[in-house]
Description:
The protein has one helix at about 15-30, and strands at about 1-5, 10, 35-45, 50-55, 60-65, 70-75. The termini are far apart. It is built from one helix and six strands, in the order ββαββββ. By secondary structure, it is an alpha+beta fold. A hairpin with a 2-residue loop joins β5 (about 60-65) and β6. The chain has a two-stranded antiparallel sheet. A two-stranded antiparallel ribbon has the order 3-4. The mean pLDDT is about 80.
Amino acid sequence: MLELAPGVYTAPRISPAVRDRIWDVLSDWYLYENDASIVMLWADNTSAGGQAIRILGSPPIELVEIDGLIVSRRQGSLTT
């Protein structure tokens, strides 16, 4: 996996089995963190916006669906 920024990793072709194993490890680590969040995204043609999402903790943004597209909204952002 390529580390894009501290704590941000990407890999364009991970099988569902590998993705599940990674999620299991991260879920175990998360139990020992006080102020953390984990967001996992992957391509999924059956989900809105063509992506599926798993979240542990509270990310600093809120993920919302608008007209079939998943977008991020920061606390205090204007909404339409």
